[in-house]
Amino acid sequence: MAAVARSRAAIAGLIVPGLCVLTFSLVVPLGFSAYFSITDSAGFGEYHIVGADNYREILGDEVFCRSLRNVVLLIAVTIFLQNPIAFVLAAVLSRLSARVSRILRTVYFVPAVLSLVVVAKLWVDVFNPTFGVLDKLLRAVGLDALAVSWLSNPRTAVAAVLWIIVWQGFGWALLFYYAALMTVPRELEDAARVDGASWPQIYRHVIIPYIAPVIAAVIVNDVISSMKQMELIYLTTAGGPGQLTQFLGVYLYQKAFVTGEYGYGNALSVVFVVVSLVLSLVVLRGMRALAR
Amino acid sequence: MTERIPIARRIGTVALHAGLAVFAVMQLFPLVWMFVYSLHRSGDLFGGDLLSIPDDPQWDNYARVWVHGEIVRYGLNSLIVVTASTVASTVLSFCMGYAITRMRWRRKRIVLGAIVLGMVVPVHATLLPNFLWFGQFGLIDTRLGLILPYVAFTLSFNTLVYAAHFRSLPVALEEAALLDGASWPRILWTVIAPLARPATVTVAVMTFLTCWNEFIMANTYLASDELRTLPFSIIRLQGEYSGDYAAQFACMVIVAVPAVILYLWFSKHIMAGATAGAVKE
For residue range A77-111, what is the model confidence (pLDDT) as tens digits? Predict the structure, then answer.
């Protein structure tokens, strides 16, 4: 076994093809992006090296700051609102009969398997002020004043966009927590109950500490996927009204392909990658330390 | 005092079950609404009623979508690109997952680094450079130009799913096969691949779903109508038949249904795969 497990030909044959694809469509493009980030390229034609100008511009870019703020907001909503609810529901599901639990889990997860294009269009329609179901509902119960154009009203747009993202991601959060709760040995719980512990105490002192590593992993995952939100915003508000719902992924895309600032878009793209990597690393480290 | 605890507990139980129901409705209601509206006449959507199936369901809406939404052409395009991506990603991640868990080699860290990069780097950060980079090779507006990034962005997760699975397999079988003098590719194909079947189903289904639903790369790299994938039928109707709301709802249903069926069919594998990533991290 040892001889073959070190066979160079075998290892190369197994690794190289995959590594080539990764290098060609992921690693090299990042280098490409880094290069164009120091130019004033429009994506075509001639361009000049402008050094760190684009990066200096980013520092003073209000839309960039707003994008970051929206990401932080989304992370907060996910961790402090979506996750606790998903956890409680997962805990209830884990006590139900296997059949009921399976049916409900299937239901909760359906939105998560839909194309983002479907989800985006669906919610644009739900939030539509003339035929959308939400405003119809509000008017039906006499709350006409609340029936607004949710995605284009500056006071509701951010909340509406966050809602769509959280709605679609809910199934994942629930699934992760449910899977984690199913790994808790029954004996641990029984022992605590014999000792006279109440349900809240059992969860607090037995179950949650047991699945802490998973909770940490889910939070890391939340941070990464919040950073990566793009399509839902691009297809619903495109960052509007007035850049209020802007996210980094959408912003750099619009800069490059709509306003023709390809160089600047790439600088945003580089910052995007760096922030994603650093944030993931920091959260991962922090969570590992906490879980210990 | 002795009676109050059961009552409190019962109220708690009812509240929790009510919570379950409320969230089930919240997750499904928009989808039911979408289906119901797909059976209305466009003009009737502006009325006051919320959710009533019309007496004369307009199945005709679906027929219109089938033609105006280019369902057949876009659907076939999706099928070709997604199938190719799924096969390639599954095979490559099987190989990488195996080499990472079962073999010893130097510079493994570099490969692991590339894999982590594939998990963390947002797809959107590669859209800009790839537009020019792929252009250099004439890959823009081709199927291959879509398949390559699809494989790249599913490879990392798939490799981890395989790696987690291989770690749980005993090495005894491989050793026995090696002692029998079997060649390396032969062992992978006849011994390892059958053992890896559960992971393979998970990886293949999840990759298929991810690529089937993918939009932004297709939107960036494809220019010609001949190559567009299924999600574009929604965009197309929205643009060229913007007044035909009912048809737009029908189109969403048509695009959503294959994914939902695939999910219902393989939900066990999808759940297993989704959690393998998080739980075993």
Answer: 999 999 999 999 999 999 888 888 889 999 999 99
Kindly determine whether residue A280 and residue B24, on different chains, have CB atoms separated by under 8 Å.
no
Give the closest-approach CA distance of B168 to chain A in angstroms. 16
Domain membership of residue B128 (yes or no) is: yes
Interface-testing mutation among B44, B124, B154, B178, with chain A (most A C-beta atoms within 10 A): B124
Count of structural domains, chain B: 2
Task: List CB contacts (< 8 A) between B35 and chain A.
Answer: none
**B49 part of a folded domain:** no
Chain A residue with minimum CA distance to B88: A18
Q: Residue A219 above 80 pLDDT?
A: yes
CB contact under 8 A, A131 and B46: yes
Q: Is there a single domain that holds both residue B182 and residue B252?
A: yes
> What is the architecture of the domain spanning A61-291?
Orthogonal Bundle (1.10)
Give the domain ranges of chain A. Answer: 61-291
Q: Give the ipTM.
A: 0.90
pLDDT band for B156, please (50, 70, 90 cuts). very high
Shortest distance between the Cα of A111 and any Cα of chain B, in A, equals 7
Whether residue B216 sits in one domain with residue B168: yes
For residue B77, being part of any structural domain is answered with yes
**Model confidence over A109-156: pLDDT tens digits?**
999 999 999 999 999 999 988 888 888 888 888 888 888 889 999 999
Query: Are B16 and B135 in a shared domain?
Result: no
Secondary structure (DSSP) of chain A: -HHHHT-HHHHHHHHHHHHHHHIIIIIHHHHHHHHHTTB---SSS---B-TTHHHHHHHT-HHHHHHHHHHHHHHHHIIIIIHHHHHHHHHHHTTS-HHHHHHHHHHHHGGGGS-HHHHHHHHHHHT-TTT-HHHHHHHHTT-GGG---TTTSTTTHHHHHHHHHHHHHHHHHHHHHHHHHHTS-HHHHHHHHHTT--HHHHIIIIIHHHTHHHHHHHHHHHHHHHHT--HHHHHHTTT-STTTT--HHHHHHHHHHTS--HHHHHHHHHHHHHHHHHHHHHHHHHHHHHH-
Residues of B in contact with A13 (CB under 8 A): 95, 185
Q: Are residues B23 and B87 in the same domain?
A: no
In a domain, B55, yes or no: no
Enclosing domain of residue B104: 60-279
Q: Which domain CATH number covers B117?
A: 1.10.3720.10
Cβ distance of A176 and B278 shorter than 8 Å: yes
Q: Are residues B273 and B141 both part of a single domain?
A: yes
